[in-house]
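Appendix C reproduces, verbatim, an entry submitted by the partner laboratory led by Prof. M.T., so that reviewers can inspect both the input and the predicted structure.
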Amino acid sequence: MNDFYEIRKLLQDKADYQARINLIPYDGTPEVKENASGKYIYIRKRIGSRLTSTYVDIYSEDLYQLLLRNARELRELKKAIRKIDKKLSDLGYVSSELHPRVIQNLDFARANMKSNIYDQAVLEGVATSFPQTEDIIDNGTVNGMTASDIQKILNLKHAWEFILDSDVIQAKSDYYLLCHIAGLVNEGFFAYGGRIRGVPVTIGGSIYKPPVPVESVVKERIDEILSSGRDTIDIAIELCMYCMKTQIFIDGNKRASVIYANHYLIAHGNGFLVIPEAHVPEFKKKLVAYYEGEDISVIGEFLKKNCWKTF
């Protein structure tokens, strides 16, 4: 049993490190080249026996130092993953093969990840356009946006990369996975963003005041939903709605709940669930009504009709 928990922790750490690697836009060592027109920064990387050099931008000391830090961080993350792989091997862990339908679903989700992150950012009130969101996802920064909004989008990318890891997608969609996702979406905003809320909160635009959650009750309710035997989409929607209404964490509940529900859906090869920009106003109205006592079937039917994407 101890090995089980150690393997689980190692796999989570590995997926987390891999997600961080995916946030770094350039893989290689920065170098400065100079000619008659000025100085320019390139990224040098060896692929097999071939040395490649990719243009980045006109030289600036700030950009050069940033790329040096990125290169150091990349080396450290790759080294950490190699250590984890060795520990997993020592523990006898062998990754099982994914069902072809799940592999297809992972590809489907990855192909739509930028659009999904944009829609989630809009739901959170982040002032962004799709091209800006794309720039942040690809390059880690963009002009004309606050540092806070950029961080939220990078955190969404990190959390999506985490759940789309081939090992993580095989993990149970339980309370502990939810907490880890919440920690990722709250990174840079709260020191313990994945810890259960211990203070009262209010919800803007609603008379509903969620009670302070009790960890044992939350775990039990999540397990009940997971074992209910209903259709996969109905379970995913109830997981999402329960976590939002309970306001389990101090912040980031909608972001964490949607990504958590998607872990369950994708793990069962059943598409993904994201509220498109065009449906955000109607979703918010139905969410408030659900908070204030309307049956879950109403918002559930709305989500199935407008927000559930299958392939």
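Strands lie at 29-35, 38-47, 50-58, 272-273, 308-309. Additional entries are available on request from the coordinating office.
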